[in-house]
Amino acid sequence: MTTVLPERGPGGEAGGGVGDVSPTDEAALQSAFDAAIGADERIEPRDWMPDGYRATLIRQIAQHAHSEIIGMQPEANWITRAPSLRRKAILMAKVQDEAGHGLYLYSAAETLGVSRDELLDKLHSGRQKYSSIFNYPTLTWADVGAIGWLVDGAAITNQVPLCRCSYGPYARAMVRVCKEESFHQRQGYELLLALSRGTPAQHAMAQDAVDRWWWPSLMMFGPPDAESAHSAQSMAWKIKRHGNDELRQRFVDICVPQAEALGLTLPDPDLRWNEERGSHDFGEIDWSEFQQVLKGNGPCNEQRISQRRRAHEEGAWVREAAAAYARKRAAAPSNEDGRR
Amino acid sequence: MSETSRQHRARAEWPLWEVFVRSRRGLSHTHVGSVHAPDAALALRNARDLYTRRSEGVSLWVVPAEQITASSPDEKDPFFEPAADKAYRHPTFYEVPEGVRNL
Q: Which CATH architecture has domain B3-70?
């Protein structure tokens, strides 16, 4: 028996195996891993796993965590201007949840042998990405509703299958996240409904927000499967359970009747029911826009990352002070608050 | 304090704590995840804010991650092997004549 952390990967290094393994051992480990995946068992932090599996998970979980953290910004933009105390309390709770989701996910990523600081460094230096959707601005109050309904709706469609992801800590984090996301989606929908049924100006504001967020939301599912760099391998590893196109189609089919109930339209002239397929056909997505935003040329890329860096730097003294206080107390426990 | 040691301290990560939640009275604490915190008191507060925002718990434990001793997965077969060949520890091992009840 060895003294090790229960939920940490071996060593501090991402991509490390279990010490020195000979080629035959490695083949045995690989086949044990393949058998576990084949039998739909979960892989847990201290199990042997292929380097590629570990690296893929770190990349995906980190990107997911970063998206939650950066995703706080567009909505927090409206907290001070929420139209009622009720809406303000809801929005604060939602933004706090996004922080929570980021932390569940960082915690899951750390089980693979990366440190929290390393992940934050990579976000701040642009070496790891976050979802492009958060590089769009929230121009009106209705955008808060459109984000809840469409952006969180797309996220839920993506995330529900991740609750069955082959990597245990990621799947468990997603169960928590999904439970909380449904409040996010509903509050957005309710907000849009209130606007849609309001004055003509409020209705127009809701429609404008949906017009701007619809296409970026569809892009959240990623490029078509044929062009998606990691899809096939991730499916084989059961990290992903469905293709990008399948999830996108599912989302479109869910949204169409919801838009009708809102009394709003979706900005796609080619959107229509296809009796034969039992699904909605929809128009071409402008992937050049997606690529541009991904490359850093979206409306808010610069603003989002510089605000994140500033928040981190301005919090440094708090982290340092708390650590100094903890050291001082550990050194002189008898003086603790003068009570012992 | 020199500038470099100050920077080093500022950068040194807060320790990691594993978090366990008792979801309601009558149940055991269950592992839910981890938090970073400089000390136990703040670890509890951070864990409360992160893992019980919707009344998911009535009690919290935080444990320094480095203090936990775990069995190692690569020796799991020999380590747990003694339990595998003792089927007589389970009630289903025994034959009971037809009609005998409350046994």
A: Roll (3.10)
The neighbour count for residue A65, using CB atoms within 10 Å, is 27
pLDDT tens-digit map of A317-336: 999 999 999 999 989 866 55
Burial class (CB in 10 A: 0-12, 13-18, 19+), A217: buried
Best probe of the A interface among B34, B46, B50, B72, by most A CBs < 10 A, is: B34
Bridge partner residues of B17 (DSSP): B35, B64
CA atoms A224, A259, A255, A270: torsion sign: negative
- Kindly state the DSSP code that residue B21 receives in the 8-state scheme: E
Q: How far is CA A33 from CA A37, A44, A281, in A?
A: 6, 11, 40
Please tell me the pTM assigned to this model: 0.88
CA distance B43 to A9: 22
Task: Answer yes or no: do A1 and B12 touch at CB < 8 A.
Answer: no
Partner-chain contact B14 A47, CB within 8 Å: no
The first and second tokens of residue A77, run together, are 């933009």
For residues A254 and A280, give the distance between their C-alpha atoms in angstroms, rounded to a whole number.
10
Backbone angles phi, psi at A47, to 5 degrees: -70, 155
Q: A9-29 burial by CB neighbour count: b if 16+ within 10 A, else e?
A: bbeeebbebbeeeeeeeeeeb
| pLDDT tens string A89-108 | 999 999 999 999 999 999 99
Alpha-carbon distance of A184 to A99, in angstroms, equals: 13
Question: CA A246, CA A123: separation in Å to the nearest integer?
Answer: 29
A–B: how many Cβ contacts below 8 A? 82
CA distance A184 to A147: 9
User: In the structure encoding, which two tokens stand for residue B77, read together?
Assistant: 């077969």
Among A120-134, A198-212, B83-97, which is the least confidently predicted range?
Answer: B83-97
Backbone angles phi and psi of A41, in degrees to 5: -85, 160
Residues of A whose CB is below 8 A from B66? 5
